[in-house]
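Task 17 of the worksheet. Students: predict the tertiary structure of the chain below and write it out as structure tokens. Keep your answer in the requested format; marks are given for formatting as well as content.
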Amino acid sequence: MNRRLSRRAVMSGAAATAALGMSGCLQNPDPAGGGGGGTVERYTPGDTPGSGTVSILGAFGGQERDAFMASLEDFQADSGITIEYTPDSDFTNTVQQRVGAGAAPDIALFPQPGGMFDLAEQGTITPIDVYLDYDQLNSTLIPGFLDSARLQGRVYGAPMRMACKSLIWYPKKAYEEGGYADEPATMQELYQITDQMKADGITPWSDGWGADQATGWVGTDWIEEFMLRVHGPVVYDDWVKHRMPFNAKEVVEVFDLVGDLLKTEGNVLGGTDAIISTPFSEAPLPLFDDPPKAMLVRQGNFVTGFFPEDVQANMDEEVGVYAMPTWEGGFDGQPILGGGDLATLFTLNDDTVKVMEFLTSDKFGGEWAEAGGWLSPHRTFDQSLYSSEITRQIAEIASEAAAFRYDGSDLMPTAVGAGSFWKGMVEWLQGAKTSQEVCDEIENGWPK
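Model answer:
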């Protein structure tokens, strides 16, 4: 297995400047700068009184809605503002339709930045630097989060929830009995652990990409994880935003590196055919067989909802987790791939600003954290409020990240991120096309 990228490749011009570029891309934007909204005057409290009611549109319902509203009860009582939250499973289309019809909500919670950017270009969203203390907000967030909401120099949304994808899960008791290290510093060290597992007669990895029409999205995560680690956040940004072609040599090299891991015989349970046919929700299950059929799964924090019920009931004792390690010779720092709900403002007045200030602060979410299933994007959030030790561990992993980056396929045009990229990953894993061929095809089909 080729586990080290050549020094020439790692230190290409773009990658070598990654660390230097990190500080520059997170500056407080110029209020008179670009973006679809043009110049917007700084908000002054008292100039635009509210009505006492603020409407919010989001994508989550059920228990998540209940936990969200519980997190707003004290705020509503103290402020005198009534919050009306509407969940919509077809949020992406609904928010576009409502804005187009002149019936935009006061605030919308975007689960992906793409739709937010579309509306920002139309000038319907107020940039956050108009009404929030940008520097104060940025100082408490995990580095890089605000950059995920930046368009042409302005930031149009601020996170109120985080998802963390860069996690390696393992069956705690069996893993510890095997004597495997639980804090590998690099991917190369993790590969040594997987070699030890194979020597012990255990298949290291379980993986599943099956998701009906969305089959392949898990594969895009693998590429994104390696792009961040091997080439760093700045090159990652250039790739996602198409400032560099999809078939650039850095991308092709990463495909090959991921192939070394997933396609090497004995590394993944059932081989490449099983990866395609196994639903992503079932990939963790072999870890909890007795004895385990595999030891490792790479997946986001949401995956715990698919663990066996008895494991979920005793997570802290049954499950271990650590951050997907860095790449030796690559980006100097721990990056985290993830996502989150971005709060955006359509109606600017005293009441909506107060709600946005609370939603996007490190004081929001205590009740949701206690209920479970929620992570704060703030490093300064009180982690003692989380309902389990493993959730606190994940929050700590994210808080200590050198850089956070949004899932790349969510930022790419839909025809790519939810189309040719997914399809290309399946063809590549099955061996129907080489790394170069898949990257060429995706580049050639990128929307003009």
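Marker's comment: The longest helix spans residues 217-240. Confidence is low (pLDDT under 50) at residues 1-27, 31-38.
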